[in-house]
Structures are given as C-alpha cells and as structure tokens.
Design a protein that fits this description.
Elements (H helix, E strand, L loop, with lengths): L1 H28 L2 E7 L7 H8 L2 H4 L2 E7 L3 H9 L5 E4 L2 H8 L6 E8 L4 E5 L15 E3 L6 H12 L9 E3 L7 H6 L5 E5 L2 H8 L3 E5 H5 L5 E6 H6 L1 H20 L2 H8 L8 H13 L11 H13 L9 H4 L3 H7 L1
Parallel strand pairs: 1-2, 1-3, 6-7, 6-8
Antiparallel strand pairs: 3-10, 4-10, 5-8, 5-9
C-alpha cells in the first residue's frame, strides 16, 4: 500500500514538473521581438532607457531591440519600409508622411517627451545672456524641416529675431555632424541635445546659455509611432509596449535624478554618472519627460502652429487622424 502511494506521489510530482516545464516553454514562445528605431541616442529619452534597464519591457513579454537611426527622414524610412516595428521620432514626421498620401500612415500612440530637448550653446562664455545677442552672429541650427529647427526658429521669432535676416543661419549640416562641425570651428552659437551640450561645456568647447524647451512650451516633441496596419494587426504588442513605457514614465517621475542616472548608465558607458544626473535633473526641472503616454489635442495643435510658423506645414491634420490615444488611456486605467 505504501509503495503504491509513493508511486502515485511520484507520478503526480512528475506530471506537475512536466506541466510547469510546458508552461515555461509556452511563456518563452510568447515573447515578442520588437525592433525600435530612435532618431538619436540621448538622455532626453531617459524613460525609454529606464524601461530597457529596469526590465519593464521584459515584464510585458517583449524583447525590445533599439537601434539609433540619425535623422527623422531616415528613421521614418526604416519604419515605413518595414525595417522596424516602432519609431521614436518627432511627430512632425508623421504629418510629412501623411501629406505624401501614404497608403499605410504612421500613427502616434505614445508620447515620450513634451518639450524641445535642445539647448543654445555659445562658443564664448557669455555673462547675462539675452537673445538679442544672437543678432549678427553665425548660428549653427538643426536640419531644415525637423522639429529642433522649427522650434529654434519659433523661439528666435518670439524674441524678435528674424532667423533669416538678423543672423547667418546654417541648417544644411547633417544631424549627426552638427556637433563635430561646431567643435571644428563652425558657428558662434549652436543648437544641441544632451549630453553633447554638457560635454562641450565640461571640455570648454562651448557654454549652455539658454533652453529651447523652456521657451517653446508643451509640444509632442518625440513620440512612439507605428504603421496603421500594425496598430490594427498587432495591437497586443503596441499595448504591451505602451504599458512598459508608462511604467517607466512613472518611475522617472517618482525617483531622483541620481537614481535615474545609475539606472540608465549602461546606455551611456562613456558618460560620467554625475553628468548624466545633471542632464536628467535639467530635463526633469523643465518638464521635458512626459509623465504619461497621452498626446493630447492641445499639444498636437501647438505642434502644427510651430510647423506653420516655420512654413513647413503641408496641411492641417486632425488630431484623430494621426494620433491614437485609446491604447494609452486603457493602459493608464
């Protein structure tokens, strides 16, 4: 009787082991590979790196691979051609694609940053900076038609500066070569992302004198987008991705710049953790990191106003046409 009971117990134990093994295999089979193209690799995108380093994507069953594809045009090409599943880029690019009558337009589904992320860097140290000091100078701006350049011009005009009359505006330098061009002697002022701006300051190559983010107000500066067909056919992946991003946004909101810097340090191995913390604090203090993934209508309209002011808006596009907030709203509930 005792032997029979032992045999039965071993049988049950074996079956349980088998079931757990099968469940584990099944779970592994459900891991979704997601390819993301980011327009640049910057501390400006901190919540994305938090989601990677803290395992928030893995918690949702996603294996996320991020590749840097410099330039909004190249990033969107990667998305539209099917080279990646998701693009992290300025929302203006979705308007450009839509204006070309794309059969499968790019849909904005999760906002990551809500202000401009660039800073005005002067070659010489400037005491008591004022914007009118740019008049008569050579200004190395960003690529024409991109969000940094349009916000840059918007801010200059706000301060009574005509970017095409009151200074020499250079905007034909490729995105990846703007910092090296300034470093080699081009321009009196340059518009740079972090951590490059702070690195230049550390090395004595330039000095941060103003923030374009503080000057321009809320705008959907960088969002995650995917093709309309992907929104329809792979909504589960989009929802899981958004859920991980929202979790990371909340984590960034609730933690100190120092703790955030330590978390994302592996993404910036050549940058000192103290410098990362300084940059994170700078972005946090000016509200650059979105605290939730919803791209609202007011921000969308502000984006189009800035594009229109720069002469780059093909046509007014309704918020509902290129923005999907349903997934983000569902995730937040």
């Amino acid at each position: 009787m005792k032997k029979r009971w032992l045999k039965g117990s071993f049988s049950v134990f074996f079956i349980l082991i088998l079931m757990f093994s099968m469940a584990a295999c099944s779970s592994k089979d459900k891991v979704l590979k997601v390819k993301v193209a980011e327009v640049t690799h910057s501390i400006f995108y901190t919540p994305q790196y938090v989601a990677l380093e803290k395992g928030f994507f893995e918690d949702e069953g996603l294996d996320v691979e991020v590749t840097t594809v410099p330039g909004g045009d190249k990033t969107m090409t990667a998305l539209i051609s099917g080279g990646v599943d998701i693009a992290l880029v300025g929302s203006e690019t979705s308007i450009y694609v839509y204006a070309q009558e794309a059969n499968d337009p790019a849909i904005n589904f999760a906002q990551l940053t809500q202000t401009d992320g660039t800073f005005l860097v002067s070659r010489e140290k400037v005491d008591n900076f004022s914007w009118d000091q740019l008049k008569g100078s050579t200004f190395l701006g960003q690529r024409k038609g991109g969000m940094p350049q349009m916000v840059g011009e918007f801010v200059l005009k706000k301060h009574g500066i005509d970017p095409h009359q009151d200074l020499e505006l250079i905007q034909n330098v490729d995105f990846a070569n703007i910092a090296p061009a300034f470093s080699s002697g081009t321009g009196d002022y340059v518009q740079l992302f972090e951590p490059t701006a702070s690195v230049f300051e550390q090395e004595g190559k330039g000095y941060i004198v103003a923030s374009f983010g503080k000057e321009s107000g809320h705008v959907p500066y960088t969002t995650f987008m995917t093709k309309q067909s992907t929104m329809k056919d792979n909504s589960e992946m989009v929802e899981k991705f958004t859920k991980a991003i929202y979790k990371a946004q909340q984590w960034v909101e609730e933690n100190s710049a120092q703790d955030i810097a330590k978390a994302i340090k592996p993404q910036f191995p050549d940058t000192d953790v103290e410098l990362i913390a300084t940059v994170v604090e700078r972005y946090k203090s000016q509200g650059s990191f979105a605290t939730d993934p919803i791209l609202d209508e007011e921000e969308w309209n502000n984006l189009q106003n800035i594009m229109d002011e720069a002469g780059e808006l093909p046509s007014q596009i309704d918020h509902s046409t290129l923005v999907n907030t349903k997934i983000a709203e569902g995730v937040m509930k």
